[in-house]
Amino acid sequence: MSQETHIGTLLADQLDKLFTRQVDPAKLVAIEAGLPIIDIWSAVEQQGAALALAGGDIGAGLSWQETLPMLRTLGWHGAPVPLAETLIGASALTAVGLDLPEGPIAISTAEFELDDHNRITGEDQLVAWLPQCNALVGQSHRNTERCLFVVATGDLRLRQADSLARIPSASLTLQHQPVTACAALQGQDIVADLAIVRAAMISGILDRVLALTVDYANTRQQFGRTIGKFQAIQHHVANIAMQTAQAQAAVIFACQQRDCTNASHAAAVAKICTGGAATVSASAAHQVLGAIGITQEHELHLLTRRLWQWRAEAGSDHYWAERLGRNVINAGGPALWPLIAG
Amino acid sequence: MNSSPFRFPPFVIPDQCQALREEVRAFLADYSNTWSGWDVGHSWTGFDRAFSRAVAQRGWIGMTWPKAYGGHERSVVERYVVVEEMLAAGAPVGAHWVADRQSGPLILRVGTEAQRQKLIPKIAAGESAFCIGLSEPDSGSDLASLRSRAEKIDGGWRLNGRKIWTTYANECDFMIGLFRSSGSPEQKHKGLSQFLIDLQSSGIEINPIQDMTGESHFNEIVFDNVSIADEDLVGEEGDGWAQVNAELTFERSGPDRYLSSFPLLPATVSALTDDTNDRLAARKIGQAFAEITVLREMSLSILSQLSEGKTPLQEAAVTKLLGTTMEQRLPEMTRELLDNSPLIGDDHLSQLQGYLTQSVPSFSLRGGTNEIMCGIIARGLGLR
C-alpha cells in the first residue's frame, strides 16, 4: 500500500470520527432546516480534507482512488457539509491555475455563456449548498473555448430551491454577471467529476442503509421471532447487499478510470450502477423497516431522500446510460467487447 | 462507523496480456464464421471435442497447471483472458470447460499422484471430458441430503443411486461424483466423499433428458452396483462437502457467471445501428454495458483474492446473483428494443435470441439457485 493510500484512509478515519462526534440525525435535520454549518466546516478544513484532491502548492494532490474512502465516509454520514463540492471545485480551480476562494465551494452543473468582458449568462435551477457557500464554481463557453469560472455568491440574487434531500439549495438566473475569475479548461469536466463524487457518496450511504436494515431485521420481532428469520426479509436484505456490492465495485472502477483521465466513462459507469443500486435499495429498505422507516422518528428517511437526490444530480443514471449507450451503438456491435476488455 | 461487508480491491489486467488476447481473438476469428447464432447461444455448454483439442494445441487448457502434468504454468490472469475471450465470442468450450475450471484443479489440489499422472495430461490435451455428479432426484438445493451411496468393499467401493441434471454425462469420459460413504442422509454434510468414475464402467446407465430447447444436455445417471477401485476416491473420505464448496467459490465468480448471454449484446447493437436516435435503446444498452463492465471488475477482484489464498465466499455469492440476473435480462432487453418476432430463422440474431430465451431460465438455477445465494448472503450478514 502506497504512502498516499495511507493518507487517504487516514483522512477518511479522521472525518469519520469528526462526523460521528458532531453529526447525528437531529443535526442533519437541523442542517436541512438551515442551521449554519460553519463549526463543522471549520473542523473539516482543519483536518485538511477540503484540499485532498486539489493540486498545486496548497493541495494534497491525492488521486481519486486515494480520495474514495473519504467520499464514501462523507456519504455514510449523509454529507452534512459541501465537502464533495469543495473537493472538486478546489481541484478544478488549481488545475487551471486560479486562486481558491475562502470557505466551502458550491458547484453548478449548468453550462453558462461567457462574453468578451468575462460576464456569464445562464440559469441553474438547483445548486446544492449555494446559500451556505461564499463561492460558486461552474463551466461556461465563449464560442468554442470552454472556461471554468468562479463567482462570489454575495453578488448574486439567489432564490431558495426545495429538493428531495432538503440540503440548503438555491436556483439562480444570471444576466451578464461579472465573474471573480475565469480560465480556460483543458479537458476537465466538473459535471463528470461531480457525478463520480455523487456515485461514491451513494456507495457510502448504501453501506449504512444495509447495516441499518440488517440491524432492524435482527431486532424487530413479529410472530414470535425476529423478522430477519423470514426468507422474504432475507431476500430483501440480500438484494440490498448485492446492490451495495455492485455500487462499491463501480466507484472503485470509476476512480481508477478517473485517475487515467477517462472522466466521462468513469462517471457513466459509476452513475448508472449506483443510481440503479440507490433505487432498488431504498425501496427494499423501506419495505423491511415498515411504517417506522417512513417517519421522521427514524433516520432512514434522511438516507433515502439523499439517495434519491444524489442519483439524479450531475446527470442521472438514465442520462449517463443514454450517453454511454449512444457511444456504444455508434461504435457498433463488433467494437463492443473490445470497449469493455481492451 | 463506515464499513462494508464486502471487499472488492481493484485488479487491473497487466498490459503484457494484450498480445495473448489478440492471439485468442485471431484464433477465434477463424472459427466464428462457422458458428450459427444457435451455436453461439450455447456458450460454455457447447460441446465440440475437435474445437477443444484445437484449444489444447494452443496451450489454452490447464494453463496454470504444472508443466510436469502437461500444464503450461501461466498465470491465473492469463487464463482469465483466454476464458473471457472464448465466452465473449460464444465459443463451444463445453468439452473442456468443467475439467479446466473445476475437475483438473480439484485433482491437482486433493488428488493422488497416480490420479494426477493419469488424468491431468489428458485434460490438458483436450482429450478427457468431465462432468460433475451432484444433484439427485430428491436432492437439489438441499444437496447435502443426497442418498446415492458408496459402500466399502474389498479393494474399492460399490456405488448405488441416481444422479440427475448432469450436463453432458452422455458425452463425457469421467464424472466426479459426490456420494454418501458413511452415515445417513439426516447427517447432512458429514460422511460425503468424492469419487472419480469412468463413465464406461459397467452398471452405469445414462438417460438423456430433453430440455425445452429440444436438445438433451442434461442426463440422469443410474448407478447399479458400480464397482470402482480404492484409488478412485478423490481427496479424503468424508471431506467431500468441504471439497465441493471450495470448488464452488471458483465456480460462482468466473466470467461464465455473467457472460453466458453476452454475444446477444453486440448482436443487438448491430441490429440497432440504423437508428441511433432511439433513446430507450441507448439507455438500455448503456446500462447493460456499464453493469457488465462492473461485473467484470468484481469477477477480477475475486480472482485476485482467490489467488492470494483468500476465500471471498460472500463476494462470490453476490457476483453470481448479479451476473446471472444480467444474463437472464439480455434476451428480454433485446425483445424490448427490437420487438422481434418469435421466428427462429436463418439469421444470427434470431437464432441466438431464440436459443437464449429458452435456455436462460437455467442460469439462475445452476451452481446454486438465486434463493440459495440469497440465503448465503443473508447468513453472512448475520441474519438467521
Automatic annotation (TrEMBL), chain A:
GO terms for molecular function: acyl-CoA dehydrogenase activity. Signal peptide: none annotated. Keywords: FAD, Flavoprotein, Oxidoreductase. The keyword Metal-binding does not apply. SUPFAM superfamilies: Acyl-CoA dehydrogenase C-terminal domain-like. Residues 197-327 form the Acyl-CoA dehydrogenase/oxidase C-terminal domain. It holds the Pfam family Acyl-CoA_dh_1. This is Acyl-CoA dehydrogenase family protein. It comes from Halioxenophilus aromaticivorans.
From TrEMBL, chain B:
The keyword Flavoprotein applies. Residues 279-381 form the Acyl-CoA dehydrogenase/oxidase C-terminal domain. Keywords: FAD, Flavoprotein, Oxidoreductase. Residues 131-226 form the Acyl-CoA oxidase/dehydrogenase middle domain. SUPFAM superfamilies: Acyl-CoA dehydrogenase C-terminal domain-like, Acyl-CoA dehydrogenase NM domain-like. One of its GO terms (molecular function) is acyl-CoA dehydrogenase activity. Residues 16-127 form the Acyl-CoA dehydrogenase/oxidase N-terminal domain. InterPro entries: Acyl-CoA_DH_CS, Acyl-CoA_Oxase/DH_mid-dom, Acyl-CoA_Oxase/DH_mid-dom_sf, AcylCo_DH-like_C, AcylCo_DH/oxidase_C, AcylCoA_DH/ox_N, AcylCoA_DH/ox_N_sf, AcylCoA_DH/oxidase_NM_dom_sf. Its cofactor is FAD. Transmembrane segments: none annotated. One of its GO terms (cellular component) is plasma membrane. It comes from the Bacteria. Belongs to the acyl-CoA dehydrogenase family. This is Acyl-CoA dehydrogenase family protein. It comes from Halioxenophilus aromaticivorans.
